[in-house]
Design a protein that fits this description.
This protein is of the alpha+beta class. Helix 7 links the parallel strand 5 and strand 6. The protein is globular, with a radius of gyration of 28 Å.
Length: 535
């Protein structure tokens, strides 16, 4: 009679019981690193990600079977690129087209990978994948060195403020793991990083296909004493600047479930906030103190980026979606003019004659742009230009229809970035990063809109056409109630008020104290009114 056997017989008496709550708590304590791959066509980006997932045991068995070319079962028969290239067109052509996001975790850290395409025509997808990354892996073919697309991706990574870059010198097996080849590419890459002001660049010799120096150290590179790719990913600092940066909370929603609660919800873009801190609401400029910080898990004494929170304030002040809450001591700039780096993402070239919609944080305004120069990707020199074509990078002056609250992109990636939208078809046509705010800009000193009291109906029509053509947000009305005017002025609107025929033309603004300031015009023509309005 066969002896009965139980699985429990294999469990040692001293084994500790597995607690799912402890496991989940430990997983929550791990920090998260977002990274992206970049480089030219066929440099091996998707193969590297597939190898990283396979060697770190982050791929299910059925996924491995689906991309295995034979029944031998060894790693050499696995098409690692297809672990991330999921579109049919990608698998047919053997290229990456769309951004593929994959999640995996090790004992030390959690990761989100953005596998981006290398073809020039899909540069816009690379910008999308890199926009939230903390680290970029730029692959370089050991046989070819730095190519034009590699330079473009490295420059975009520097524009997007990615502080940590890994230069993975791939296909080292095809150059017999030559130390001299690696050293030459390393010198070229370090020189490029210096020009692009990338503060942290590490070069690693790898073979994505064979797995050398990806997860485990390779015996074929005894001259390399640095970390493997996974070792570096597990140890690089994550978002070390966010908690120490000035506090910024773009308001995404006002929560008012009943008359005794009014909270302002959003994700902390940077900095730290505590109960009792003095804050300022922009663009209104009203101040208050933080009464409480609410989250899904209950109240907190303090919160920091990138937590999602709801703030309640001690005073009843007017705050709505699109506004921003900041510490009063280091508030951002409220401006309608600034300079920005611009990546053009649409087949239709940029033109100065068109008004675009500028989406910034949770607000959207009209904007006029003028390109000052274009960047030569090969030499990194600036070239005089007035337009940008698909995938070109340049610098532009931006003027918005009403002031927006911005920081320089190097200080805050949320309040320092924007996208451009074509209002004709709602297509995203460009991505921008704020570089400099014009100190003498109109929006710097302009705290509100303007009310124009106009007696002639034909003059109202002419002014409305001229203001709309210049990108201003205009409201026409017969109402002459001061409280309504004050609300429209704080919304940075230009208000045209129909007045009696015997009235004088007046311009009404708000001063810093919120009081009306009137100016009577002796020359009530369209050009004279517009000139006084701009001043």
């Amino acid at each position: 009679m066969p002896q009965e056997f139980s699985v429990l017989d294999e469990v040692p008496d001293a084994a500790e019981p597995f607690e799912i709550e402890d496991f989940l708590a430990a997983e929550q304590q791990k920090d998260l690193l977002r990274f992206t791959t970049a480089g030219s066509v066929d440099d091996g980006k998707s193969t590297l990600i597939g190898r990283l997932l396979y060697d770190s045991r982050s791929v299910y068995e059925d996924q491995i079977k689906a991309v295995t070319r034979s029944h031998s079962g060894d790693a050499s028969s696995i098409d690692f690129a297809q672990l991330t290239d999921g579109l049919r067109a990608e698998r047919e052509q053997g290229i990456t087209i769309d951004v593929a996001y994959r999640f995996f975790a090790t004992a030390k850290r959690k990761f989100i990978i953005a596998d981006t395409p290398g073809h020039e025509q899909y540069t816009r997808n690379m910008v999308t994948g890199a926009s939230t990354a903390d680290l970029a892996i730029i692959l370089v073919d050991a046989r070819k060195g730095i190519l034009t697309q590699s330079r473009r991706h490295a420059f975009i990574a520097s524009l997007l403020g990615i502080r940590h870059v890994v230069a993975a010198i791939n296909k080292m097996d095809l150059v017999d793991f030559s130390e001299d080849v690696f050293a030459q590419h390393q010198r070229d890459l370090l020189s490029l990083a210096e020009k692009l002001e990338i503060p942290d660049l590490l070069c690693i010799p790898i073979s994505a296909l064979d797995g050398d120096n990806v997860v485990t150290r390779s015996d074929r590179t005894p001259w390399y004493d640095g970390p493997t790719l996974l070792e570096h990913l597990e140890s690089v600092p994550v978002a070390e600047h966010l908690p120490n940066a000035p506090f910024r909370l773009p308001v995404q929603r006002v929560i008012r479930p009943h008359q005794h609660f009014r909270g302002f919800a959003g994700q902390v873009a940077s900095g730290t906030i505590k109960a009792g801190d003095t804050v300022i609401a922009l663009p209104s400029g009203q101040t208050s103190r933080v009464q409480a910080i609410h989250t899904f898990d209950g109240e907190l004494e303090s919160a920091f980026a990138p937590q999602s929170i709801t703030l309640t304030l001690q005073d009843e002040i007017d705050i709505s979606r699109g506004d921003l809450i900041a510490h009063q001591a280091n508030a951002p700039i409220n401006t309608a003019a600034f300079e920005a780096s611009l990546v053009w993402l649409h087949a239709e070239p940029f033109t100065t004659s068109k008004t675009y919609l500028l989406k910034h944080a949770s607000q959207c305004v009209k904007a006029h742009l003028s390109v000052t120069h274009r960047l030569d990707i090969e030499t990194l020199d600036q070239q005089s230009a007035q337009s940008l074509a698909l995938n070109e990078i340049g610098e532009a002056r931006v003027k918005t229809s009403r002031p927006i609250i911005v920081d320089a992109y190097r200080d805050n990636r949320i309040t320092g970035s924007f996208i451009l939208i074509d209002p004709a078809n709602n297509a995203t046509v460009g991505a921008g990063m704020v570089r400099r705010v014009s100190k003498s800009s109109e929006g710097q000193n302009r705290k509100s809109g303007a009310v124009l009291i106009v007696p002639q109906p034909e003059l109202v029509v002419a002014l409305e056409k001229a203001l709309l053509a210049s990108g201003e947000d205009v409201v026409t009305t017969h109402i002459q109630k001061p409280e309504i005017w004050r609300t429209l002025l704080r919304a940075a609107l230009t208000v045209l008020v129909h007045a009696p025929a015997n009235a004088q033309v007046e311009i009404v603004n708000l001063d810093e104290a919120g009081e009306f300031v009137k100016q009577t015009l002796s020359q009530p023509g369209t050009e004279a009114i517009l000139q006084n309005l701009s001043n």
